[in-house]
Amino acid sequence: MKVLAxxxxxxxxxxxxxxxxxxxxxxSLNQSKTHSENLVPMVKEVLDNLGLKIEEIxxxxxxxxxxxxxxLRIGVATVKAFxxxxxxxxxxxxxxxxLAYNLPYNETIVPMIDxxxxxxxxxxxxxxxxxxxxxxxxTVLDINELLDMLEAYDEVVVNGNGSTxxxxxxxxxxxDKVRFSTxxxxxxxxxxxxxLTLKKYRDxxxxxxxxxxxxxxxxxxxxxxxxxxxxx
Length: 232
Hints:
Layout: E1 2-7, E2 12-19, E3 22-30, H1 35-50, E4 59-65, H2 69-86, E5 90-94, H3 95-101, E6 108-116, E7 119-128, E8 131-142, H4 143-150, E9 156-159, H5 161-165, H6 167-174, E10 178-180, H7 190-202, H8 221-231
Parallel strand pairs: 1-4, 4-5, 6-9, 9-10
Antiparallel strand pairs: 1-2, 2-3, 6-7, 7-8
């Protein structure tokens, strides 16, 4: 059972290939090119190096958000196209759940993705029975509102670009209660998306590639601007 998983929810594009419980390859890239330019060549390079063809993949997984609206659309559209063409199952994975999956610790895990204007996309997770358990569903919060909530916890570990952006604020508010992720686990890794995809597939879950869509959690700036014009 081979899994190909993608993440394009931030500036870093990532893809990974699993075969059962063995990691075959992972490729992550942060550069100025858009995901539309480098994603498919990245997938091709990984598969070529592994001596695999895209039609040999059994399951496709993709991070569906929250995150960059444009990036998510590219990643989801790419995986949906693969699944449609080769008639293979596809599974969408929360970017925040995949971030939490990077940190297999028993304490409270709080991934944060920058949502601009001092807000973060976030959720609260813990590790239970060899996988993540959701304590608070994905949402978007002002960083100080989130920290108000986290002050009730004895210990938290945080990751994601939102945690690096607001690092000093988090440290000043949570002090010794907080631990920050290492750099390598501070972005949504396609490997985590792939592992969660395989777990969900083994549990009998799969998405419909026609109806799979990104989970934005809030309207894009263009949509908000349009609503403002309509209300005038």
